[in-house]
Amino acid sequence: MLFSFIDLMCGAVFALPFAWLFMAYCKNGSRKRFLLISLFTLYLCKMFDVVGIPAVQYFRWGPAINLIPFGDEKNLRFFLQLGLNAVMFMPFGFMLPVLWEKCRTWSSTLLAGFFTSLAIEIIQLFSFRATDVDDLIMNTLGAYLGYVISWAFFHKKWARDPEPDPGRVNSWCSLVISILIPMLVIVFLRTLLSDWIYGLRLFD
To answer: Radius of gyration (Cα) for the chain, nearest Å?
Structure first.
């Protein structure tokens, strides 16, 4: 848990300031939105770390690809992994329609979950992790389930508050950039700090 916390903080050190600067540029600076975007950024930092997105210095071309849906051996570990993939993406689907009006339809959130998961699987072509269609399916399902929960809690409020957030950047552009910030931090910046901390051997 300590190492997990350190990895999260090493990502947050870089990702949060970029997210805050982007919010300032978009002029979407309410306290509530500031807090929610910060939580969303922290969640993405940890999620991208857990799925094994490699830092750029560790990129290796050695793809392991599974294009057959649910073709692995059906055992407890297999079903547990599928369930965890869905659970991991549920906060993504829950927070998107809360933060972006463009995602207040199930199809928009489903597409956002699909393309985010697809980006992860493509990057994993350059890592030790397998690129697996099962992950793509279950991550997308998790985003959809998160949307359903969000809709159940907030759809009446959305109906009363249909106006888009103020700002100079289109909502889809804002969403894409908000996802890219922690992803690019994990790939290019996080290990600058985490490798230095682990190199101190404070935890031997």
So the answer is: 18
d(CA 16, CA 41): 7
Residue 149 burial (CB count, 10 A): 13
pLDDT digits (tens, 9 = 90+) for 15-64: 999 999 998 887 766 788 889 999 999 999 999 989 888 888 888 887 88
Q: CA 100 to CA 103: how far, in whole Å?
A: 6
pTM over 0.85: yes
Residue 21 is encoded by which pair of tokens?
């600067």
80 contacts: CB under 8 Å, gap ≥ 6: none
Q: Do the Cβ atoms of 126 and 157 come closer than 8 Å?
A: no
Tokens of 66: 């599974």
Closest C-alpha to 138, from 171, 93, 99: 93
How far apart CA 7 and CA 50 sit, in angstroms, is 10
Q: What is the rounded distance in angstroms from the CA atom of residue 13 to the CA atom of residue 19?
A: 11
Among all chains, which residue has been given the structure tokens 């916390």?
5
Rounded (10°) angle between helices 106-123 and 171-188: 20
Where would I find the H helices in 51-132? 76-99, 106-123
